[in-house]
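Give me a protein, keeping tokens residue-aligned:
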Amino acid sequence: MLRRALLVASFVIGCGGGGAATSDGSADASTGGPSSGGPTGPDASDDATDPSGPSESGPSTGADPDSSTGDPPPDACEPFGRFGAPETTFVLPTRAGAGVYFPDVQASFPEVDWATLDRLYIPAGTYTSMNLGNLPDRTAEDPLVITNMGGQVRIGPNTPDGNYLWVMSGGSHWILTGRFDPDSGTGDASAPGHRCGAYGDARGHYGFWSDDAYAMRQYLHMGISVGAAHSFELEFLEIERSGFVGIRLLNAWED
């Protein structure tokens, strides 16, 4: 039976030449507690933007969408509360500047009830790579929401010997989101992305930002690669300057 991957996304994608696919091979092991600092990001030269982001406040309700102020129409701001208030949460232990490496996240944290967890938080910071595998099987009515906490999460560029950039695998009905939604406990006000229709100012301001600086190494990286999973969602992510492809969603043919 063909499994369907539901993709609800807004991306800025930079693609380089073709190359080898990624693997789940050796990677950086991360230790320590959550990072409390904001994003410090790699120098993207002419492609860089100020990560501070626009204010989280919505537009004036009297704004004319055709006026010279640039304000979006009043109904452009989606109401908060899309995912509901979380009751159970877990913060991944990470170390800024290193890789986030949990290829079997359920085995790494057996104390977590992965069948009922509402939010899996990734602390703000810049990481060389990320691997989250064996994500749980959930239901459409009770998905696992994976989101950034305390600011923007930047992934890449990886170290010269790194054989992947960002891998997510396993499970179903999980949502990876950088959406700023205080009522749902997701994202951060400093990285609202295109909230309220602010697409023109969105670059550099998403909750998750994958940037491999067009790395041309032995392994050409995907901006994000998802495999062995189905019925998942990706949203409010920014993917750019990948060495191979920006987004790779791949299951075995028999799946």
About this structure: Confidence is low (pLDDT under 50) at residues 1-68. The CA atoms of residues 34 and 220 lie 29 Å apart. The chain has one helix and twelve strands.
